[in-house]
Design a protein that fits this description.
homodimer; Rossmann fold; 5-stranded mixed β-sheet; 4-stranded parallel β-sheet; 14 helices; elongated
């Protein structure tokens, strides 16, 4: 078989372990020098392909590639750029083919969430549509854990471990001080329209009387009175109340809680998430002393507290993507299959890209406690293996070591530039 | 010598390692059964003494005591309660003596910041003032790192490690995405009137061109125009800008930046810290896409990323406090002395409580870069040893293990109760 170059790119919000997937792709590709020539990484995702900004990963040392496994962020740059439908923006697809042809690219590996799998699917259709033969494989990634078919999404387990650990730690802090200081603590977490990340905080405690006492899921309509009553009950009964709120928590009518922050002196919508809004609500209705935290990017970048399971799975889907391509598969995405719960066993499966694109996996309603404020035993059973094990990065001078790839661009071959 | 019981209490905001100091106190006290009878821990700090709510730590197993070393929060409860001057509230001092006498307490160990050392000092005067002989030793603790004499304060090194690590990790995230997404990220950190914690973020990068690009210290008057100019420069020059802001950052006239958040629809002062206010400022003046995080209690509770140096020192000051008492010392506080920078060597010294109380150590101005937005080489040299080494807690089921002391109260001996 002819040697072809490969294109790999990272897409969408990065995670603590997306570079572990990159590591899996690159290390595996290096095992097939008779099939895969160079692996070019898109500088800033698919934008790099459109602009012909291709990072030559063959110039990176084995050590740098290995260090990707423990480096958070997206080592080659990521992007938020969704390819339109073929008929809507044929120009983009034609450009991609020009670039791929110019650099003899025969393999396309795209590492991202739902939108990115849609992009990978569209690329896989290029053979048929534009007569350019290419093998396109998606690689799953998203902290939101909302891709269908796969047991979970690489990136999620590490955020879950960070959120559960942080909730446990902060809860001990508040418990210590509640007699004469803060009584209500609110932690805002990510997850968009899915409550998976918020749910993971529930692993920090068991039962109604343990922190977190309240989890606010996007899947459950926010009821101000019920929320305040539960806060008040917890403070009176347990001395304090720990609330973990999903950024996507919303009222019955679909308004986000975070939207209720009012407007500033200039009439602009007040910035800020759900945590300060809830804190304000508690203060005004109940008068309790409060604190709030918004961990934002810290949670999805926290490689130092990554889940070992997650790191292994992130690596495995990168590795599998290359193996799939080597086995002649096309237009598929590796998925994680849960074989068994306890002890947890998993394997790698596959799903056609056409089926996975643009679908969102919500939390099953039986994962949420009847009162809407916590997780069930089923949910706990699902989540626990995903945060299992630690995979500490090496440290140097007190800080995590990280890969610093040279990211040298391949000389351009095309005369035309491309405006996004 | 007669056997006397000891009183130990935790005071003020808790830290990731204040229980390591408790561990040092309790394990060391157990070595002197012929001198120290039981160690009673105040339930919720000094409040426990006033209310005669004394936790009998002799009922805790050696395993539980050992586990305190890796448990964040305050295992016996802490408080924000400052004893007034003797003449202003003699009633409190008389009550303390009643309780101490009833429980045959001859040693007083008080673990806290500046206010708490003031309390320890007042207790040490009880012998003279009220004729009750007691040995009072302070044990330093504060994430704000603002106690005088000691090289640093137990608790600070671990927050510094958390903040430096989180800043490094989040910066990689933002760098990955800045081409088509967030360009400005703002992390708010603690520290009250001292910029030590904010300074520690500076360890994540070196030089003007590396993240964090801007640190806002309470010690440097906030200049809106200079700040916005620097943000704009960084975005244009480096593609993104990472800002770490101390909660105590303020304008020239002493107004906190956080106060500028305006009022909500009800006319209440808008809650929320400096991060969302700065984000709003950037948005309105420059229009860049932003994200912000407020780590709040997460930073001071983050035992999972504690500094090994900090844990050792926190343990050592607890241990030293008991050894001091056994050596007949009184009204002193153990301090950390820096013997050498590289390799870092330290020892335990002491300072009279009367000198340490109610003083605040500010950051030396030569630790802050001339432009006011970063740290100097001197500051780096000071900070680096304090975040050195990792001291991971054991994990179980994916989460840190923590001590769960039984915290059984000693039966009360006094008839009178006490209203705070």
């Amino acid at each position: 078989m002819a040697v072809k170059n490969a294109f790999y790119a990272q897409s969408g919000g990065v995670t603590a372990v997306i570079n572990a997937s990159a590591c899996g792709v690159l290390q595996t590709a290096r095992k097939y020098p008779d099939r895969i020539g160079k692996v070019y990484a898109g500088r800033n995702g698919i934008i790099g392909a459109l602009r012909e900004e291709l990072i030559d990963t063959s110039l990176e040392t084995d050590e740098t590639i290995a260090a990707l496994r423990y480096t958070p962020g997206g080592a080659f740059g990521s992007c938020r750029h969704k390819l339109k439908n073929f008929d809507e923006n044929k120009r983009e697809y034609e450009r991609l083919i020009e670039v791929f042809r110019a650099h003899d690219i025969g393999y396309f590996f795209y590492n991202g969430g739902g939108d990115s799998q849609d992009t990978a699917y569209k690329i896989s259709q290029l053979s048929e549509r534009l007569g350019y033969p290419i093998t396109a494989i998606g690689i799953p990634k998203t902290v939101d854990n909302d891709l269908p078919f796969t047991d979970n999404c690489p990136g999620f387990g590490s955020v879950a471990k960070y959120v559960a650990t942080s909730t446990l730690e902060a809860s001990l802090d508040i418990e210590s001080m509640c007699e004469s200081s803060t009584k209500v603590f609110i932690l805002e977490v990510m997850g968009r329209h899915a409550g998976w990340i918020a749910a993971s905080a529930g692993l920090a405690g068991k039962g109604h009387d343990q922190a977190p006492h309240i989890i606010l899921f996007p899947e459950i309509a926010f009821d101000r009175e019920a929320f305040l009553a539960r806060v008040d009950h917890c403070v009176k009964e347990y001395g304090y109340c720990v609330v973990v709120a999903s950024e996507g928590a919303q009222y019955e009518d679909g308004h986000f809680i975070a939207d209720a922050g009012g407007r500033d002196a200039f009439g602009h919508t007040q910035l800020g998430g759900v945590a300060p809004v809830l804190a304000n609500m508690v203060k005004q209705a109940l008068g309790y002393k409060f604190h709030w935290a918004v961990s934002d990017y810290l949670q999805r970048a926290a490689r130092h507290i990554a889940s070992e399971t997650d790191v292994r799975q992130a690596y495995a889907v990168g590795e599998a993507a290359v193996e799939f391509a080597m086995n002649g598969k096309n237009a598929v995405m590796p998925i994680i299959r849960r074989e068994q719960n306890s002890p947890y066993r998993w394997s790698i499966g596959e799903v056609p890209l056409g089926e996975v694109a643009n679908q969102e996996k919500k939390m099953p309603i039986h994962y949420i406690r009847d009162d809407g404020f916590g997780i069930t035993a089923d949910c706990r059973e699902y989540l626990l293996p995903l945060i299992a094990g630690e995979d500490y990065p090496p440290f140097e001078n007190g800080l995590p070591k990280v890969a610093r790839p040279a990211n040298k661009l391949v000389p351009k071959k095309l005369k035309a530039t491309f405006e996004l």
